[in-house]
C-alpha cells in the first residue's frame, strides 16, 4: 500500500491505496465521483478525461500515486452550486449529447481547448483538439458547436482573462 | 495489472540504485505507453520507479547550435515552446502531431525514445537531425541508440536524461497518421544542414526508424521533389499489417518524403 494525498475539486483527500490503482478507479470507486467514465482499455476514447494540475489527462492512463500532491478537477467540480459551468450549459443548449457517456470527458477536454486556444474558437481547431475524445452517438457536429459556444460564454465569466494564444 | 512495488525517488542516483537492486524494475515517465502495457498484463515489473519527482529532468534549452530537451519534458511543452518553434519549427510541429492533447500532456521525449516504437515520431527527428541521446552515464549518437524494433542501446538500469538536437538550416516533418491510433503509418523527417540532406523514415520499416540513403544522395545533388523520381523503398523491408501492406507503406513513405521536400523547397 502507498499513501496518497491529493486535492480533488478543491477538497484535500488522503488515502492508503494499492499503487496499481488508476486515477479513474480512485475517483470512481473510492471517492464515488462517477462522472468520469471508462469507455475503453486502450487509452483512446477520452471518456475519463480530468484535469491534473490544470491539464487534460486520461485518468485511465495515470496511476493515482502519480497524482501525489496534485490538484485534480473532475466534471463534478465545475458547477458553482446549482449553476452549471458555461461549458456544461453549452452542451445542453446545443444538444451536444445523446447518451451522455462521453460528455464529461468532452466537457473537460473542451475547457482545456479554451485554456489553450482562447475564447474565439474555430471549428478546425476544436475538431483537431478533440482527436482523443470519441463519441458513439452525436456525429460530433453539435459537440463542436457546444464547445465553440461554451468558449464564448466562458469569456463572459467574471474574471475571465483571455488564454494565451496557442 | 500485476502487482509491483512503487518508488518515487527524488534523486537520479536513488532511481539507479533501486533499479540495480531490483533487477526487475521499469522506469515510469509519462506512462502513456507503459500504463496501457501494464493494464494489458503485457509487462510485469517487480518494481516501478517513477521518474516524475526527480528535479532537472524536464526543461528546454535553446542555443544557436542546439535544442536540448530534458527527458521528462512533455510533448505538449515541446509543441508550445516559442524557442523551439523559432529554432527548429519542424520539431515543435512533430511534437504537436503525437497522439492527442491528453497524451501530449503526459507523454515525454525520454519515454518515446526509450520505447523506440517503430511508428513513433521522435525517433525520426533524432535520426534526421543527428541528435545525441544523453543518459546518466554517457552520450550516444541517435544512430547508435536506436537498434531495431522497440530496441535501444540502453542498459536495463540506464536513464535517458536529455536529447540534444543540432539546429539544422531547415527541416520539415510529414506524417500520415493511422486514423485510429494517430501513430505514423509513415512519417518522413527531412533536414538540410551544411551541404547535406538527411531523410529519416518512421512508421514503415520492419526494423524501426531508418535513414533513406538513396533519397539523401539524390536530394543532396538536387534539392527538389523531382529528385526522388524513380527512387523506391523495398516493399519487403516494410511493415505489413492489417493497416497496410509493405508496398503501400513503401509508397506512402516516399509520398511523405516528397511532401516534406516540397514544403522546404517552397521556402
Ligand atoms: C492514444 C495514444 C496515442 C499515441 N500516439 C502516438 C503518436 O502518434 N506518435 C508517437 O510517437 N507516440 C504516440 N503515443 C505514445 C506516446 O508518445 C508516449 O508518451 C511515448 O511513447 C512514451 O512516453 P511516456 O513518457 O509516456 O513513457 P512511459 O510510458 O512512461 O515509458 C515507456 C517506456 O520507456 C521507458 N522510459 C521512460 N522514460 C525513460 C527514461 N527517461 N530513461 C529510460 N527509460 C525510460 C519506460 O521504462 C518504458 O519502458 C501514443 C500513446 C497513446 C496512449
Ligand atoms: S477510458 Fe480513458 S481513454 Fe478510454
Ligand atoms: S453522447 Fe453517447 S457517446 Fe457521446
Could you name the CATH topology of the largest domain in chain A?
DNA polymerase, domain 1
Secondary-structure element sequence of chain B? EHEHEEEHHHHHHEEHEEEEEHH
Number of domains of chain A: 2
Distinct helical segment count of chain B: 11
Kindly report the greatest chain-chain contact and the residue count on each side: A-B, 31 and 29 residues
The main pleated sheet of chain A reads as:
5 strands, mixed
Can you tell me about this structure?
Chain B: Its EC number is 1.2.7.4. Chain B: This is Carbon-monoxide dehydrogenase medium subunit. Chain B: It comes from Ancylobacter vacuolatus. The complex is a heterodimer of chains A (166) and B (267). With 166 residues, chain A is α+β, with helices and mostly antiparallel strands. Chain A contains five helices and five strands; from the N terminus they run ββαβββαααα. A five-stranded mixed sheet of chain A has the order 2-1-5-3-4, with helices on one face. In chain A, helix 2 crosses helix 5. The termini of chain A are far apart. Chain B starts with a strand and ends with a helix. Chain B folds into three domains: 44 residues; 107 residues, Uridine Diphospho-n-acetylenolpyruvylglucosamine Reductase, domain 3; 96 residues, CO dehydrogenase flavoprotein, C-terminal domain (Enolase-like, domain 1), CATH 3.30.390.50. Chain B is globular and about 55 Å long. In chain B, 34% of the residues lie in helices and 22% in strands. By secondary structure, chain B is an alpha+beta fold. At the A-B interface, strand 4 and helix 3 of A face helix 2 and helix 6 of B. Bound molecules: flavin-adenine dinucleotide (FAD) and FE2/S2 (inorganic) cluster (2 copies). The site of one FE2/S2 (inorganic) cluster has 11 residues of chain A, from loops.
Amino acid at each position: 500500500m502507498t499513501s496518497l494525498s491529493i486535492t480533488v475539486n478543491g477538497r484535500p483527500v488522503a488515502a492508503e491505496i494499492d499503487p496499481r490503482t488508476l486515477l479513474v478507479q480512485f475517483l470512481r470507486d473510492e471517492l464515488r465521483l462517477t462522472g468520469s467514465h471508462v469507455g475503453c482499455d486502450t487509452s483512446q476514447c477520452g471518456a475519463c478525461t480530468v484535469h491534473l494540475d490544470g491539464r487534460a489527462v486520461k485518468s485511465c492512463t495515470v496511476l493515482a500515486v502519480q497524482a501525489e500532491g496534485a490538484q485534480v478537477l473532475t466534471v463534478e467540480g465545475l458547477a458553482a452550486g446549482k449553476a452549471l459551468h458555461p461549458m456544461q450549459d453549452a452542451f445542453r443548449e446545443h444538444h451536444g449529447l445523446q447518451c451522455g457517456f462521453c460528455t464529461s470527458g468532452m466537457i473537460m477536454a473542451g475547457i482545456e481547448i479554451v485554456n489553450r486556444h482562447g475564447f474565439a474558437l474555430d471549428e478546425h481547431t476544436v475538431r483537431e483538439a478533440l482527436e482523443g475524445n470519441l463519441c458513439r452517438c452525436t456525429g460530433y457536429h453539435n459537440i463542436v458547436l457546444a464547445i465553440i459556444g461554451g468558449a464564448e460564454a466562458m469569456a463572459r465569466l467574471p474574471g475571465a482573462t483571455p488564454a494565451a494564444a496557442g | 495489472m500485476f502487482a509491483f512495488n512503487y518508488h518515487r525517488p527524488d534523486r537520479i542516483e536513488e532511481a539507479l540504485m533501486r533499479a540495480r537492486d531490483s533487477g526487475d524494475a521499469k522506469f515510469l515517465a509519462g506512462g502513456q505507453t507503459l500504463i496501457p502495457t501494464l493494464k494489458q498484463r503485457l509487462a510485469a515489473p517487480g518494481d516501478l520507479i517513477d521518474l516524475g519527482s526527480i528535479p532537472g529532468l524536464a526543461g528546454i534549452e535553446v542555443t544557436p547550435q542546439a535544442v536540448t530537451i530534458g527527458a521528462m519534458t512533455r510533448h505538449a511543452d515541446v509543441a508550445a515552446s516559442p524557442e523551439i518553434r523559432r529554432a527548429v519549427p519542424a520539431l515543435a510541429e512533430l511534437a504537436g502531431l503525437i497522439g492527442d492533447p491528453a497524451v501530449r500532456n503526459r507523454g515525454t521525449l525520454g519515454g518515446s525514445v526509450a520505447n523506440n516504437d517503430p511508428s513513433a515520431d521522435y525517433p525520426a527527428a533524432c535520426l534526421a537531425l543527428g541528435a545525441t541521446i544523453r543518459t546518466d552515464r554517457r552520450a550516444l549518437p541517435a544512430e547508435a541508440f536506436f537498434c531495431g524494433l522497440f530496441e535501444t542501446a540502453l542498459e536495463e538500469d540506464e536513464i535517458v536524461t536529455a536529447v540534444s538536437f543540432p539546429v539544422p538550416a531547415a527541416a520539415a516533418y510529414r506524417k500520415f497518421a493511422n486514423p485510429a491510433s494517430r501513430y505514423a503509418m509513415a512519417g518522413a523527417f527531412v533536414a538540410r544542414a551544411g551541404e547535406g540532406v538527411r531523410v529519416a523514415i518512421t512508421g514503415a520499416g520492419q526494423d524501426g526508424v531508418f535513414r533513406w540513403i538513396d533519397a539523401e544522395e539524390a536530394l543532396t545533388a538536387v534539392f527538389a521533389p523531382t529528385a526522388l523520381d524513380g527512387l523506391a523503398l523495398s516493399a519487403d523491408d516494410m511493415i505489413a499489417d492489417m493497416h497496410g501492406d509493405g508496398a503501400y507503406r513503401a509508397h506512402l513513405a516516399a509520398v511523405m518524403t516528397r511532401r516534406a521536400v516540397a514544403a522546404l523547397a517552397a521556402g
